[in-house]
Amino acid sequence: MSEHNASRAEIIIRRHIAAVRGQPCLPLPVPDYLGVAENIVRNALPWQAADGRIIDPNEKREVSTATARFIGALGLLLQQGRCLDLVKNCQLALTPALEDLQLNRTNWGEFIVKEALMGYAGVKPCSSPDQIASWEEKFSHYDPECNYSRCRPENGGGSGNNFVTFAIAGEAGKQFFRLADNQSFLDRMVALQLRHFDANGMYRDPNCPMTYDLAGRMNLTLARAFGYQGKHQAELDRVLRLGALQQLLYQSPTGEMPYGGRSNQQNFVEAMFALICEYEAEHYWQQGERELAGVFKRAAALAFKAVRGYVSGRPVFFSKNYFPQDGALIHGREAGYGWYSPYSLLIASQFGFAARLAQPDIPQLPTPSECASYCLELTPDFHRFFASCQGLQIEIDRNSQAGYDATGWGRLQHRHCPPLLALSAPLAAEPHYLTTIPAGPDTAIGPVINGVSLASRRGEELRSRIVSREVMPAQVRFSIAYSCPQFDLQEDYTLTPAAVEYQAQSKAGELLVRVPAIVSDGRQESRLELTDAGLAVDLAGASYRVSSLTPGCVWEWEEQPLPNRNGIYRVCRCRCPGQSIRLRFTLQESRTAGTGAD
User: How far apart, in whole angstroms, are the C-alpha atoms of residue 299 and residue 291?
Assistant: First the structure.
């Protein structure tokens, strides 16, 4: 296919496919979506009250979306021949959820409908005609523009963000099951939602969190899977295609989704990604794009592998850490929401959908982040930059959101090393997520100039630009210039398949670089050593080394341990006698390679 008029992401991916064509590819195991979903659902059975509702084990009350997601996950399992002993549990939960929806008892009706549809489809073969008629009446007899809070005229009439995409998926599902004649509503809502896509096909929720790029596109993908063919089908297909290609490039080499904004480092995010990939793999396979289908197929398997260890046992860990999940304070969960019951059950529902969409016979092809070299610059709304070199990847946030992230270099991962070995996400000051120890200052890998850290700079006062970039098969080089009232700074990066050479330069004054090092993820403990040569971190048999290439540098620990969503860290400082400092970051795989989630 010609590169003329192709997106930048598509060009990178097609060049990658050409480079790996004919090379052997050891396939990843077929994702056991239904096995994980069943584990999560059975884990939730003790939470079901006598009236069918799901009572959160930590909050001791029903929290928003929990019952609906139990219904959706269990219904999807029933449709695919699993959990047949739990039909009555699904029936019991379905009626009160639909009553809430029809009688407008909640302000989150958008989230109920697609899950309830899956429960309805799962239990219909085992239900009486009177039960079925009662459920169908509840699905069919309410006004979406009244019962979906973000579709009400006083709330924007559907112009708002990701809530509306849940409504679209649900109403498309009702159309699929012949429970509603709602084409006009769907067309109006889709038209309004198309305004939220950027030039790369990424979905812009408020503050552009990376998680909700996936959430919006997942729901609109499900609408297409349910058969939406309205006025805006062509444009919807176009932006969904762009976004799906973009996500292949921002997936990390360990299969993880990027950090950035609210709800990141939650395991349902990889489940959303896998769902989209399974849909795209089947779509491209049917279109004759067999190699591209294979890339999506492997990307889904890689995402599943990234979270499998967290969600396949008991308890289910819904964030990327192993801290206790019982009690109100769950390390890493959102402070204002993010309760255990709905966000663990959401993983099960999304994996159930992924299994429903999956075409099992598509052969895998390596993903770009596993072996390609490229740079990916997101639009200014998302303000993030990715660089990959044959299985080593970094992520940089050029203007972070306070309370969630820190500005600068926040991720370093290698395909054969545990994701948390170096850094998966920055450490936020005054975080909007819960932590088991007090937080400290904003922290990423990066400079402090005259006592002011790049990590803490954000907003309109901070300017940044990519000064240069050069991509070769075994080396990626680029530079970023930052400017704020406190300093001007240039960072230079050189990536090879096993290391990053980093240089910070500023004429503003005293310069040092802070480097966080993981202590614990709640289960595994690292071994840390700081010497005149630099930092050494050993975790799960893999090693991470940071050494100075600038003479005269002094290394020291900061006293206070700090948290992020993944764990507890110590932070070291490398002080430099001049106005420039060069460091080398090296990751070495263990003999038994794998991710920290395995």
Answer: 13
Burial class (CB in 10 A: 0-12, 13-18, 19+), 351: buried
Report domain extents, the chain: 37-142, 369-588
pLDDT tens by residue, 344-388? 999 999 999 999 999 999 999 999 999 999 999 999 999 999 999
CA distance 407 to 480: 12
CA distances from 482 to 7, 110, 205, 436 (A): 27, 41, 26, 33
When pLDDT is cut at 50, 70 and 90, the band that residue 594 belongs to is very low
Distance from the Cα of residue 220 to its chain's centroid: 17
Q: What is the 3-class SS of 432-487, one letter each residue?
A: CECCCCCCCCCECEEEEECCEEHHHCCHHHCEEEEEEEEEECCEEEEEEEEEECCE
Question: From CA 311, how far away is CA 363, in angstroms rounded?
Answer: 26
Written as one letter, the residue type at 143 is D
CA distance 380 to 398: 9
Residue 509, number of CB atoms within 10 A of its CB = 12
Residue type, 263: S
With 0-12 / 13-18 / 19 or more C-beta atoms within 10 angstroms meaning exposed / middle / buried, residue 470 is exposed
Which residues, 6+ apart, have CB-to-CB distance to 313 below 8 Å?
Answer: 39
b/e per residue 314-344 (b: at least 16 CB within 10 A): eebbbbbbbbebeeeebbbbbeeebbbbbbb
List pLDDT tens digits, range 496-505. 999 999 999 9
- 573 bridge partner residues: 514, 556
Write the CB contacts of 422 (distance below 8 Å, at least 6 apart in sequence): 412, 413, 414, 537, 544, 585, 587
Name which CATH class applies to 369-588. Answer: mainly beta
Q: What are phi and psi of 356, to 5 degrees?
A: -65, -35
CA nearest to 494, candidates 584, 383, 560:
584
**Amino acid residing at 45:** L
DSSP-based helix, strand, coil % in the chain, nearest 5: 40, 20, 40
- Are 494 and 500 in contact by the 8 Å Cβ rule? The answer is yes
State the Cα–Cα distance between residues 396 and 393, nearest whole angstrom. Answer: 10
Cα(497)–Cα(479) distance, rounded to whole angstroms? 18
Within a 13 Å sphere around the CA of 94, how many CA atoms are in the beta-carbon half? 30
Q: Which residue has the tokens 């330069």?
A: 505
- Report the length, in residues, of the chain: 598
H helix count then E strand count, the chain: 15, 18
Virtual CA dihedral for 223, 227, 233, 236, nearest 10 degrees?
30
Mean pLDDT for the chain overall: 96
CB 257 within 8 A of CB 419: no
* Residue 72 structure tokens: 């959706």
